[in-house]
Specification:
The complex is a heterodimer.
Chain A (H helix, E strand, L loop, with lengths): L1 H7 L10 H21 L20 H9 L18 E2 L4 E2 L2 H18 L3 H11 L2 H14 L12 E5 L7 E7 L4 E8 L4 E7 L26
Antiparallel strand pairs in A: 1-2, 3-4, 4-5, 5-6
Chain B lengths: L4 H10 L5 H19 L1 H18 L11 H13 L2 H14 L3 H6 L2 H7 L5 H9 L2 H11 L5 H8 L3 H20 L2 H10 L1
Classes of the chains: A alpha+beta, B mainly alpha.
Chain lengths: 224, 191
């Protein structure tokens, strides 16, 4: 075990973290726990693994790019008001709230980002993201130089799935240079995003996404 | 102290706030491990995310396992692996110019400088060259003090794989030390 012991001495041992350092994480956890209790929707064990029938999609760019077998270079719809345009499932039912809210936000947000329209991006955050999460996201950005709400640089398309943890959480996959999947929690009353977590890669955490064309033209209209 | 982590997790299924007990028990240790690997700037976020992920996945926790530490370290390792380029770069800096941005982020200058003594440089170079998977095994064993079995649980791999990865990592460490005979002598006085 000599080599292992040598590795142990490679760096100074960190001191115990001060309580304040851990307080923010504890508060986040407690908030999540209280939210779950309030919504009476405990986590389901097989949620990440299940192949649920509910699939959704999102953008014309995604649909057309996949259909053509091309690269995903298009942009999503830019209208944050088009709840009616996002549909899911084999019966073409309307998407429930969390997916719709996530779709409206991310469609518009990616478009704003792609245009370097920081004012529009700020407006969207103010409208769709809970205040304390916005504060956390600002802190995150200064530390990581990455948008907390995206977790990856310059994503080009967003895809949505309803195969999620509970009825208030949607899954959003962002494709770009580094594809990533986000778990987006939405407060049903406030219609705001209250938590965004990156879904870890790994065999048991893999989430299946399918692209299901929506009503072309309606769902995918862009603002000029 | 850790014998009833599984009971806490079980209770949290009906009383979600109970999960904070797990945070109170293990957050500091996870924080120190994250600090060791990535430095002070990342540790808070790694800890917060580790427990949020754990909370959301707790239904699938194997409640026959009384100690939740390996599970939490496994989640933390996954999150840390997203910073693997930064981590490898920090080892390379330590190896080549004697500067360790990770140690400097949480230790005072003297401590950080001591950590950059020449005998440690070959080790840092070897760590930088390890694959992320081998490095996880080595550092969970060395820095998180997990046993082979616990490391296997943390990374969801067989114990045999832990042994083989650790053997590979140790060989590279030994080779690094062996390539620098003066270093070996000096290291022996520290060991």
């Amino acid at each position: 075990m000599d080599e292992v012991n040598e590795v142990r001495g490679l760096r100074p041992e960190p001191a115990e973290p001060e309580p304040e350092r851990l307080a923010a994480g504890r508060a986040l956890l407690l908030r999540e726990a209280r939210r779950e209790r309030a919504t009476k929707a405990p986590a389901r064990g097989s949620a990440w693994r299940g192949r649920e029938l509910w699939r959704v999609v999102a953008t014309a760019a995604t649909v057309s790019a996949v259909a053509l077998g091309g690269t995903l270079t298009g942009l999503p719809s830019d209208s944050p008001h088009e709840e009616s345009t996002v549909r899911v499932g084999p019966n073409d039912q309307r998407v429930e709230r969390p997916v719709a809210v996530a779709a409206r936000f991310y469609n518009a947000y990616l478009t704003a980002k792609s245009r370097d329209d920081s004012q529009r991006a700020g407006e969207l955050r103010a409208r769709y993201v809970a205040k304390d999460l916005r504060a956390y996201a600002r802190k995150w950005r200064t530390r990581h130089d990455t948008d907390f709400l995206l977790r990856t640089q310059a994503p080009r398309t967003a895809t949505y799935s309803k195969a999620e943890v509970d009825e208030h959480t949607a899954l959003v996959r962002l494709d770009g240079d580094r594809p990533t999947t986000l778990s987006v929690r939405v407060d049903p009353k406030e219609q705001r995003i209250t938590q965004v977590a990156e879904v870890l890669e790994g065999p048991e955490r893999t989430v299946e996404f399918e692209v299901v064309p929506t009503e072309a033209g309606r769902a995918l209209r862009r603002e000029p | 102290m850790n014998t009833d982590d599984s009971r806490v997790i079980e209770r949290s299924l009906t009383a979600p706030e109970a999960f904070t007990t797990l945070y109170d028990r293990h957050a500091a240790a996870i924080h120190r491990y994250a600090t060791f690997r990535l430095g002070d700037d990342h540790a808070d976020d790694i800890v917060a995310e580790t427990f949020l992920v754990a909370f959301r996945k707790r239904q699938r926790y194997d409640r026959d396992r009384a100690d939740a530490r390996p599970w939490l370290y496994g989640i933390a390792s996954n999150l840390i692996s997203k910073h693997r380029r930064f981590e490898a770069r920090s080892y390379r800096m330590l190896a080549r110019i004697g500067q360790d941005p990770v140690a400097e982020s949480y230790a005072d200058r003297i401590e950080a400088r001591v950590s950059a003594e020449s005998w440690r440089r070959p080790l840092a170079e070897a760590l930088a060259r390890l694959s992320a998977r081998d490095r996880d095994v080595l550092l969970l064993t060395a820095w998180a003090d997990l046993s082979y079995e616990e490391t296997a649980r943390a990374l969801a791999i067989p114990v045999g794989t832990v042994r083989s990865r650790l053997n590979r990592a140790r060989k590279q460490m030994r080779k690094a030390l062996g390539d620098a005979p003066t270093v070996l002598q000096e290291a022996a006085t520290h060991g």
